[in-house]
Amino acid sequence: MQLIVTAINKAYSSVQAVKNVSFHINSGEIFALLGPNGAGKSSIIRMLVGMTKPDSGSIMISYQEQHYDHVPRRLLGYLPEDRGLYPDKSIEKNLLYLAQLHGLSKSKALTEMEYWLDVFELTARRHDELKQLSKGNQQKVQLIAAVLHQPALVILDEPFSGLDPINQEKVVLFLQQLKAKGMTVILSAHQMAMVEKLADHMLLMAQGQVVLAGTLQQIQQQSQNQRQMKVGFSSEVNMAQLEQLDAIVSVQQLQARHYLLTLAEQAKVSDCLKLLLQYGELTQVEMQSADLHQLYLAAMARHKPEAAA
Amino acid sequence: MISRQSLIVARWEFLRFFKWKQQLVSYLLMLAVIAAIALWSFFTDESQQQYRIAVPPELQITNTEQFQFQRPGIALETQLTQMQSDGSWHAVISLQDGQLVVHTLTGKKWLQQLDEVLQKHYRHLAAEQMGLNATQLAALEQSVEIETRYLDQAYKGKDTPEKMIAIGALILLFVGLSTAFGQVLISITGEKQQRVTEQLYAIVTPQQWMDGKVLGHSFSALKAMLTSALVMLLSFTVVSLFAKKAVDLSWLDISVVLWLVPFALLGVVLCASFMGAIAASIDDPNNSGKSAVMMITWLPMILTFIVIDSPAGMGMTLLSFIPLTSFAAMPVKMAMVTVPWWQPLLSLLLLLATVYWMRRVAGRVFLRGMQMYGKEPSWGDIVRWALSNKAD
User: By C-alpha distance, which of B44, B64, B175 is closest to B114?
Assistant: First the structure.
């Protein structure tokens, strides 16, 4: 399977939800769409699923020498952002219904269901009505519903939302299993630490536009001028004053009197230090490479003035 | 035309609302209530009892099975006191200034029958005074038999068993469409609120989904109609048994009933598709006025009922060909007048074509409505989608 998205645009009334977005995904990859609420991730997902069509640009999905302008239903496993199942029906009834709609025989559906219920430790609760489950467990049932029929492509819109850290880790394992089974996965998320562990490629979006794209290493390289400095002061300083400095893009407080500063591209470290000394005595200065979370925040911070302009 | 997925959706929808235990209990309760009413009527039937009536000596009235007239030969006041104290009489009749007065303790149903007996007695008395003999009196009391002969050979008559079947069919359609009304609304708007819709969209096409819904709820409506018909027949049997009458179902004309089936089936599917389209356009049933529009589906039965006594008239003819009303009107017309074979066939074909169009409209409204993400479409949008031929 290969998925190529070329310069797609989508507008709803006066809102331009997606602006000139392009990317491609290869078979067996985990591809992450990242961005804040309203970045355009769900709009892209709905175009991939075929619920809406792009105003311009193209989507091409190639599978076994066939080409489609959206993911065919038989190849798709989907966890929508707006999700739910039948609360007054049992886990088993919900899953068997959806599996049979996907074309699975009852016996095949039962085998698959038992496997995934075991993975998510829900076997003992298979006859419980969905409304009796915690939100986290309901989310797990939704994830099972998306993959029960072994689709070639799984699209998961915010799979980590509503889950505690332990269950988030279980979802990471679940996604790794999907990859091991040869499925291609597209997911959207805010949880950078999770995505960092999983995604082969990622697309950072803001206000409908691509901000950063590539593998984690490529994104780090793209942001290599994006230097970060961890500093400690002998006394508390005003963060707002630091943020107003031209040499600094963003400020994040790490602990009392300790801050992580993202430096502007042209800023010299020595000049920054001179400026910082005006606010107090420095007890720690350490340069560091940014992780995905920090790159994401910095990219968002950089993107804000453009959007305002 | 109907895909495997649609059949799976239909089965799911049918079983979702098929709570057989509750239904069985409700039918048993209904039968128990009918039986209780019949028992109550039986044990409180005053016409089966005998009543003692005190009358003045000059009132020479003959006893009947129900009333025994006694002439006690004591004063009226004493008679009234005895009636009150030991119930010697159920009523005391006196003649005061030429006026007949009935004294009794309280209002009773049998007083009306007593009144009829007294009226009859005085009519006979008046006839005798006029010198009429028994034959003349009988001739006077004989009501005139008027027979209406209809020149239109197709008209089967006014109060025929066929008319009972026609009215029964209209009642059953009401039952079926009321069932479908509630279920379609709950099922479609409920799925939207439970956020199942987008998940299902990724599995089945909007048309498959809507076909399944319509089919499932049509089956539910037909099941409600069938069980209601059985309950009606059972109730009829129970009432007949309590009334000590033989159960007579000879009026049930199977050939007419067989004609009702395809019209009822297509009518229910048509109305369920219409309801599906309206329900699919409702985002929040608590804040939408659109659900009331679904009651339009009751109009065909109401309009047909209004013209039921003129089955060969212009009104019924018009209703029996308009596809939106023909499912109710044509079977009624067929039950009451003989129609040429091509009329029901043409009506059925027109209805079939309209059902096909309506289910496509419902599928389109569902798809377009879902693409509006929480915004409810206007009537203008719905009409535009209905008339659009755009592929889904």
Answer: B64
What percentage of chain B exceeds 70 in pLDDT? 95
Given pLDDT bands bounded at 50, 70 and 90, which one contains residue A309?
very low
Which has more pLDDT, A282 or B23? A282
* Whole-number Å distance between alpha carbons of A286 and B153: 107
Rounded CA gap, B196 and A142, in Å?
10
> Quick one: tokens of B67?
């009333």
Q: Do B335 and B195 share a structural domain?
A: yes
Question: Is B1 within the bounds of a domain?
Answer: no
- How many contacts, defined by CB atoms under 8 Å, are there between A and B? 53
For β-strands B51-54 and B91-96, DSSP reports them as: parallel
Is B305 part of any domain? Answer: yes
* Cross-chain CB nearest to A82 (options B5, B198, B371): B198
Give the mean model confidence (pLDDT) for residues A272-286: 90
pLDDT of B261 reads 86
Say yes or no to pLDDT of A146 above 50. Answer: yes
The reply to whether B244 falls in a domain is: yes
The alpha-carbon gap from B202 to the nearest alpha carbon of chain A, in Å, equals 6
The CA distance from A242 to the nearest CA of chain B, in Å, is 42
Give every strand in the sheet of B91-96, ordered side by side: B67-70, B51-54, B91-96, B99-104
Single-letter code of the amino acid located at A104: L
Mean pLDDT of chain A: 88
Report the alpha-carbon distance of residue A219 to residue B169 in Å, rounded.
72
Distance CA A155, CA A140 (A): 15
A contact residues 12-71, partner B, Cβ 8 Å cutoff = 12, 49, 51-52
What is the tens place of the pLDDT at every residue in B225-235?
Answer: 988 888 888 87
Q: Which residue has the higher pLDDT, A83 or A5?
A: A5
* CA nearest neighbour of B99 among B117, B122, B82: B122
CATH number at residue A53: 3.40.50.300
Q: What ipTM was estimated for this complex?
A: 0.75
Task: Give yes or no for A101 touching B (CB within 8 A).
Answer: yes
- The parent domain of residue B382 ranges over 156-387
Tell me the pLDDT tens digit for each residue of B206-223: 999 999 999 999 999 999
Q: Which residues of chain A are within 8 Å of residue B8 when distances are taken between CB atoms?
A: 97, 100-101
> B104, B139, B174 — which closes off a domain?
B139
Q: Which of A92, A94, A101, A142 to mutate to test the interface with B (most CBs of B within 10 A)?
A: A101
B194–A87 CB contact, under 8 Å: yes
Most A CBs within 10 Å, among B196, B204, B367, to test the A interface: B196
> Which residues of chain A does B202 touch, with a Cβ-Cβ cutoff of 8 Å?
49, 73, 76, 78, 80
List Cα–Cα distances, B384 to A230, B189, B211, B387, in angstroms. Answer: 61, 22, 21, 5
Give yes or no: residues B353 and B225 share one domain: yes
Greater model confidence, A206 or A301 = A206
Which residues of chain A have a CB within 8 Å of the CB of B203?
73, 98, 101-102
